[in-house]
Amino acid sequence: MEHKKLDLIKDLKNKDPKLIKLLIGFDGFVDEIIHVVDKRMDSANFKRIDTIEDFAKRIQKASGLSTNIELVPVVKKIGGNGPIMCNAMSNAGAKITYIGSLGYPTLNDVFKSLEEKVKVYTIENPGHSDALEFDDGKLILGKMSSLTNVTYEQLINCVGEENLEKMISEIDMFATVNWSMLPNMTDLWQKLLKNIIVDLPKKNTKPFMFIDLADPEKRESDEIVEALNLLKEFGGYFRVILGLNKKEAYDVANVLNLFDEVSLKNMQVSLEDLNQALYNYLEIYGLVIHPVDRSCCVVDNEFYEETGPYVAKPKLTTGAGDNFNAGFMLGMLLGLKPNQALLTGMSTSGFYVRNARSPEYQELIDFINDWHENLI
Length: 376
Description:
Blueprint: H1 2-13, E1 21-25, E2 29-40, E3 46-48, H2 52-61, E4 71-79, H3 81-91, E5 95-100, H4 112-115, E6 119-122, E7 127-134, E8 137-143, H5 152-159, H6 161-170, E9 173-177, H7 185-195, E10 208-212, H8 221-234, E11 239-245, H9 246-255, H10 261-265, H11 271-282, E12 286-290, E13 294-299, E14 302-307, H12 320-333, H13 338-355, H14 361-372
Parallel strand pairs: 1-5, 1-9, 2-7, 5-6, 9-10, 10-11, 11-12
Antiparallel strand pairs: 2-3, 2-4, 7-8, 12-13, 13-14
């Protein structure tokens, strides 16, 4: 592993992320990071509930009775898979256009900082997420009625068909994320394929397309299968990569009946077998899975796995997966090997959870060096 980090640092120093051109969409959330009070000592001090398990016990005790749970807002920030991924990749220096639900008809103040770094088209008001953070995970309570208006028709109304076609024809990566919370996303994908993408000039090297379903558990199985089958159609025009966290990967494999249900629910299927089976079914360029302490991928039918810089007490976890996706795709776009891209992904998210912000490009390199020196 140690030589891998040193080789990665050398390779990153010889790359220029400013040459990368990206288009990302289409969601947008205002995230409110919240701690849950366990015991309050006085008006200024309290002990938080540290784990989801302890929070669940507190709720369970109220069954048949009632209880009062105090929530303490910590920070209000840019939210949504797209804006967080966009923010992380812009910090690395990539040239980005973002189309999403950032406020309509004018930009929500939370996204002003994003507008300073990337070209923005806003097509609808954002959703709102209350993110209850714990040491072992997070509970995201979403209010998202505005996102039903994220449609192909609204996209064209705000951006223009010719303009959108020009943008897609010029980029190195098209990322469309948070499928689960955008109820009209499958229809939007179908119309993009039919009205714009089929007319794009073919390139010798296909651009990347990154997809993130974003916890599809609440969607119907037939909807999930329909969306996943569309990825094969995009594969005629892009090198399609699907990103999943560990829970999502097992859930999707269950929907697709790739293994027996008991083995999947108990997570007895190995990550390698899971990754390879999903890759084989989808017939796409790559599939990446990111548990908390490691990550793995199958790219061009070869499996890679790397362990990560785990931290027990993160400052912020909401957005960690989006930062991993940003770092992984940054590595792929820079022409790194897939195992190196896994390391850039985990280093980007590792920096984020420790510092509650995404790294600049040099900070990413410095973090990898500190990881190599066992300083983190």
